[in-house]
Amino acid sequence: MKQGFLVSLLACVLIGGSGFGQTSATVTLNSITQTEDVVELNMSSDKPFFIGDNRFVLHIGALHFLRCKHPEGDESKLTFMISEEEFAALRDGGDITLVYGFYYTNTQMDGEGNQAEFTGTNWKVGKLNKALLTR
Q1: What is the mean pLDDT of residues 43-61?
Q2: pLDDT mean across residues, the chain
Q3: For the domain 23-134, what is the CATH code?
């Protein structure tokens, strides 16, 4: 019984930790498009995004966004959908950070700190350039 528990625990640690190797991936904001009243921020990674029980959260400045999808099931692409009002409220040049996992402490940041302050596996994507928006 004890040996079975230890094997199960070891398997959980090894499988659960597999997503943390993704921190070396490069995540890029490729485009910003608007269709009707939704703005889509289209990102890609040079490695497939981790698929698991947690969610990706996009932080731009002091705001965070949860609605996302993998277009056409492509695990190396991630699209966040935000309203045009939310997009208008974003500061041009704001820091963009992608975090795997929703952490309350991350939502309380003012958006002016550096990436090291984020809890969880995260990627510094760059600065928001609103001029990328195409309609």
Answers
A1: 91
A2: 82
A3: 2.60.40
